[in-house]
Amino acid sequence: MQALFALTLVIFGGQAEAAKSDGCEGGGYSVVFPNGTRSGAQESSVPAAGVGSSFQVVGLYNTFEVDAATFGIRNYTFTGAPNAEDLTGGAPTVVYTSKIPNHRGLSLNGPVSVEIDGDALVLERTGPGLNMKIQAKDCAAGGVFQMEPEREDGASTDIVHLLAPNVFYFDNPRFSNPPVLPLCTPPNFTPECYPVPVTPRVNWANDLSPRFVGRDSPQVATRLSQLGGLSSWRVESGGRMGMVTGEDAVEVAPPATDCTRNCGAQNRVRGKFPVLGFPFPVPQENRITPRLP
Description:
By secondary structure, the protein is mainly beta. The chain contains 1 helix and 20 strands. Strand 12 and strand 13 form a beta hairpin. The longest helix is centred in the middle third of the chain and has 4 residues, at 173-176. The protein is globular and about 55 Å long.
């Protein structure tokens, strides 16, 4: 039987409580194209001829490479830049070797839209029958990345996540045997409490940092397979695959609501729900095997 906790969701104007910004202090991206670098607050468009086969997104706290024709990404890395919320112990740490969407013959060939606003980035590109959007936050932890495919034919898109060699998926035992927690107690909770099930949780971690933890965050998406170093997902048109890191990845919270349009990458909802954490080092029996097919 699923354990039930009475939890509180604080609502302001129909939106979840604003995320804390301490993990994003000083964050901001530059996007490096073959024809030049885009940085600073802007909404601009890079002509298709200037996009190249790939381009680099460089932030203070995270960086990754984008494949221009698919909007798949390679080498998503936390830089280890100094921050109170750093997960890496100050060492550059690759999380994902790649996140690759299968567009089944379609490709992106239009200009790339670039929107930079503080620590937030939105990239978008279209091609015949296809639109792809990447939203990212240059923060040391929190909800920092999501990929959103949309097809003209309304079909789904399969996305494969390959973790870096020293990162692994595991079944978090804290979510299988949740501890007894004080609930609905001020100041962290309001009187409006409702039951949220504590369900099994797959996280990723490594053996190097006791704070390094995250999870794949689907929205209108279904997991197809799960191995120790690889997961695959079927994302409905207009849905998204996100990444949540740090304490946000090991808190009890309701699943993402269905959203297929203008679904923003969110950062930090700490303080609303109990944080169950994870054991470090992760016991071998909780690590998912085999690692790869």
